[in-house]
User: Which sequence fits this backbone?
């Protein structure tokens, strides 16, 4: 017997209608009597959240921003994120209002690690620059000279979680030096990965390629800014397949156009899809952008869908979801079945 019945979906920018409807279909098939409504693919405003989410028990989303007022004026029991990142869920306010937040941390680990390798190599070998030059009728290595051997270079990882650990594993055969900076990880915890933990300052000074793998928080938002770019090598490249706002984009534009760093390879940016202002950055010759596709494969979407649906079904049946981000909330709620959790 279902404990809860109503699920709403919003903030699923970039998701196909077919994929979006599959969430609805699977939940309703597994939980007869449940109602799943797709409110909007777009991110709703605070006012629209309050107006449209009345009476719903679960919000499923990939990008929907939630505020204190939004939580206070709805009766949500759970926010089930289909994504790894949950910065938009406002964990502090969710916990305050007794809303369980669960994410989907493993569905695309392989894909993002592989994609990041591709972006690093595209920078190292000037793949995009050379391909564009050929289309313009140019030919030969002088177009991309000088170019240096990837082997022996230093790859710096900002953040050392699941994806960056897998990235380190995939890079291990290239003969590069891999260093990482993460305030929550010690050298002992790194084990035999071949990665050396360093300070943030050392990461900036030593790295030829810096790949971002940190969550977006108040302390990491815009951390790669003018001052940080000035401390990097002028030959360095920055790669971001994590969260766009980790980088201050106007400062990145200045760094790239003023020769402070060599190039940027971005799967994510601050505004998605890009605004006209963002396009000034994306149109630079030393910028690669892959349109937030690093997570994607047919298999990853299947895993994402299944794991997200599992979490929704668990909550509808009075069970705690897997991968709860704000575990402190558990002591504040009483709706779940303690015998089945």
Assistant:
């Amino acid at each position: 017997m279902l404990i809860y019945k109503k699920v709403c979906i919003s903030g699923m920018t970039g998701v196909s209608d077919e994929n979006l409807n599959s969430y609805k279909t699977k939940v309703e098939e597994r939980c007869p009597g449940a109602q799943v409504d797709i409110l909007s693919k777009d991110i709703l405003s605070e006012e629209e959240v309050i107006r449209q989410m009345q009476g719903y028990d679960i919000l499923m989303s990939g990008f929907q921003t939630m505020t204190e007022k939004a939580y206070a004026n709805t009766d949500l029991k759970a926010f089930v994120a289909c994504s790894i990142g949950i910065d938009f869920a406002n964990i502090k306010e969710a916990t305050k209002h007794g809303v369980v937040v669960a994410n989907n941390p493993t569905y695309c680990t392989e894909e993002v690690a592989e994609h990041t390798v591709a972006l690093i190599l595209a920078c190292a070998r000037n793949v995009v620059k050379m391909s564009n030059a050929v289309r313009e009728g140019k030919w030969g290595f002088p177009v991309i000279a000088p170019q240096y051997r990837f082997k022996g270079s230093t790859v710096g990882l900002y953040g050392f979680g699941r994806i960056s650990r897998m990235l380190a594993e995939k890079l291990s055969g290239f003969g590069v030096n891999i260093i990482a900076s993460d305030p929550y990880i010690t050298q002992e915890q790194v084990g035999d990965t071949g990665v050396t933990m360093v300070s943030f300052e050392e990461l900036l000074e030593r790295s030829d390629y810096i790949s971002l793998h940190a969550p977006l928080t108040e302390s990491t938002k815009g951390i790669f800014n003018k001052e940080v770019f000035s401390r990097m090598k002028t030959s360095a490249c920055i790669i971001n397949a994590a969260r766009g706002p980790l980088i201050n984009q106007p400062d990145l534009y200045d760094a790239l156009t003023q020769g402070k760093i060599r190039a940027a390879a971005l799967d994510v940016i601050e505004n998605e899809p890009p605004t006209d202002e963002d396009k000034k950055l994306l149109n630079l010759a030393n910028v690669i952008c892959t349109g937030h596709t690093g997570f994607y494969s047919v298999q990853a979407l299947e895993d994402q869908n299944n794991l997200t649906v599992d979490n929704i079904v668990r909550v509808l049946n009075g069970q705690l979801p897997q991968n709860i981000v704000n575990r402190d909330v558990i002591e504040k709620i009483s709706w779940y079945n303690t015998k089945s959790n």
In short: Residues 109-289 form a domain with the Rossmann fold fold (CATH 3.40.50.720). The radius of gyration is 22 Å. The CA atoms of residues 18 and 280 lie 33 Å apart.
